[in-house]
Backbone:
């Protein structure tokens, strides 16, 4: 049985590109199979904001942020809340290794490839309210200059160089349907050749089968992504600990993020663990210019918007914008509704609203200093203002009574009582006008403004929503948004897939989201943000280096 390459990599997303890069720099040949067309090289990572979790970085130190491996690992473990002795064995070890990578080689590894970082650092997932609960104790979200397309570029260019040198062959529109094994060893893949597609990146492509294929190698690396584009699979695996399954969700990733390789791997004998761990956002809005079906965009909010549930009740502490994503999701599901509201004004919109995604941040994606200056000028960023004008989830009015009426009109449900909403807004406004008070969100806003990055570019000066001179009032209907798979193929620290009996699956490796970003669930129950792209890089790197070392 002749080999078509030393290694077959299934999936040309970020993890697949990293694994391929590491293999080819060691002189190994790679056959890269991808079910989409060439425009989709880089996969889901292309659409990302490009945030990366780094620990004790020069950017942090310049801003006066004191961080350490020990503090970051404590935050990680508090957030992950690992509690499954059998299936959390490898995730725990991956957590230790990944945090060490983020505190050590990660930044230089990416910089040596040409990646650069913005001088400011974001503070994502600010936490569950105590030092030992979920969340980042300090800002760690580093913005890559060029966002997701740039981190894809630094690996894709090297893969294309290896392709020109004859070390890489890429087979687009090749969908893997089976992992091939003999005597317990993975040695290839077979599947369907799909009809050529000219669809642009992210657009759902046809699944017409026009042929079959079978390829062999010394090993197979699965890097096919998660389940976020397959809402049926998301609901099938819905976590019981989150409560009821939502009836309505937006989709935060392209349709090709379908989770097929999880079942295919399991049928071949791989261990799939922690299926019920997943990461979905609470601040989704309908994309007025969609690329894929049900396309939603996440708002990356500052902490000042007032958050109401569907009935007008204010979300309790610590469920403030940007603090505890999964805790907030669990609370929202407990209300019996699948949507909530942000209340804000134009002044907050201009300073605090950002949108997730490379295409929603053209200044960072295009690496344009001139466009970047627009963020400090008066007015909302162009993509945010476009959503305010065209987005179906935005209500803009000059006074609160009309705003509440517009909110009820948007949903077709008269759930919001103007008098009750006005009382809640007025009570919080009063706290804004005092130097001291008991409102924990107001205290959090004031504390956050003590961080120079937040004060300069991220958080509006505290003020009341009913104060004059801050522009129109704005309500944004927020919907639940599918995103990341936190469980998957169980792997050891070499990214080698494990079997249910705890033994290693010879010849089979996995990296990226299909492996829960390492080990079958390195995040446990919660992510600290900036860790998804980095998880693809670290696990893909481990797979490539292990195979380059161990192959005959």
Residues:
């Amino acid at each position: 049985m002749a080999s078509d390459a030393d290694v077959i990599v299934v999936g040309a997303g970020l993890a697949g590109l990293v694994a391929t890069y590491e293999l080819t720099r060691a002189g190994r040949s790679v056959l890269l199979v991808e079910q989409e067309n060439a425009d989709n090289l880089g996969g889901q990572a292309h659409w990302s904001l490009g945030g990366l979790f780094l620990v004790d970085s020069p950017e942090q130190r310049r801003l006066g942020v004191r961080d350490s491996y020990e503090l970051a690992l404590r935050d990680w473990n508090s957030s992950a809340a690992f509690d499954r002795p059998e299936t959390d064995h490898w995730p725990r070890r991956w957590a230790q290794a990944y945090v060490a990578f983020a505190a050590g080689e990660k930044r230089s590894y990416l910089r040596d490839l040409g990646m650069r970082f913005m001088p400011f650092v974001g503070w994502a997932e600010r936490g569950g309210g105590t030092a030992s609960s979920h969340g980042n104790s300090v800002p760690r979200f580093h913005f890559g200059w060029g966002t997701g397309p740039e981190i894809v570029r630094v690996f894709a260019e090297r893969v294309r160089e290896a392709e020109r040198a004859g070390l890489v062959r890429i087979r687009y529109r090749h969908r893997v349907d089976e992992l091939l094994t003999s005597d317990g060893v993975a040695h290839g893949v077979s599947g369907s050749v799909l009809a050529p597609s000219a669809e642009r990146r992210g657009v759902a492509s046809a699944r017409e089968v026009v042929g079959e294929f079978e390829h062999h190698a010394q090993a197979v690396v699965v890097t096919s992504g998660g389940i976020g584009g397959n809402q049926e699979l998301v609901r099938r695996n819905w976590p019981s600990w989150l409560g009821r399954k939502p009836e309505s969700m937006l989709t935060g990733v392209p349709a090709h993020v379908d989770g097929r390789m999880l079942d295919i791997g399991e049928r071949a004998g791989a261990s799939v663990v922690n299926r019920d761990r997943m990461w979905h956002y609470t601040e989704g809005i309908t994309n007025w210019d969609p690329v894929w079906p049900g396309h939603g965009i996440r708002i990356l909010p500052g902490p000042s918007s007032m958050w109401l549930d569907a009935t007008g009740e204010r979300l309790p502490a610590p469920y403030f914008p940007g603090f505890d994503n999964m805790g907030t999701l669990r609370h929202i599901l407990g209300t019996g509704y699948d949507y909530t509201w942000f209340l804000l004004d134009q002044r907050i919109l201009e300073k605090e609203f950002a949108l997730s995604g490379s295409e929603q941040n053209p200044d960072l994606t295009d690496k344009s200093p001139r466009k970047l200056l627009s963020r400090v000028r008066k007015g909302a960023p162009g993509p945010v203002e476009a959503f305010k004008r065209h987005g179906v989830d935005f209500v803009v009015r000059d006074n609160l009574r009309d705003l509440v009426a517009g909110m009820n009109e948007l949903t077709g449900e008269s759930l919001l009582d103007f008098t009750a909403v006005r009382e809640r807004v007025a009570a919080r406004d009063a706290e804004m006008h005092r130097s001291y008070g008991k409102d924990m969100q107001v205290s959090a806003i004031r504390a956050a403004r003590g961080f120079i990055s937040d004060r300069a570019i991220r958080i509006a000066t505290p003020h009341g929503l009913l104060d004059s001179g801050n522009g129109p009032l704005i309500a944004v209907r927020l919907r639940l948004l599918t995103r990341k798979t936190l469980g998957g193929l169980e792997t050891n620290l070499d990214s080698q897939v494990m079997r249910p009996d705890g033994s290693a699956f010879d010849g089979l490796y996995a990296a990226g989201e299909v492996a829960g970003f390492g080990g079958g669930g390195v995040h446990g129950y919660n992510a600290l943000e900036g860790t998804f792209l980095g998880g693809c890089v670290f696990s893909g790197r481990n797979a490539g280096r292990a195979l380059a070392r161990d192959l005959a």
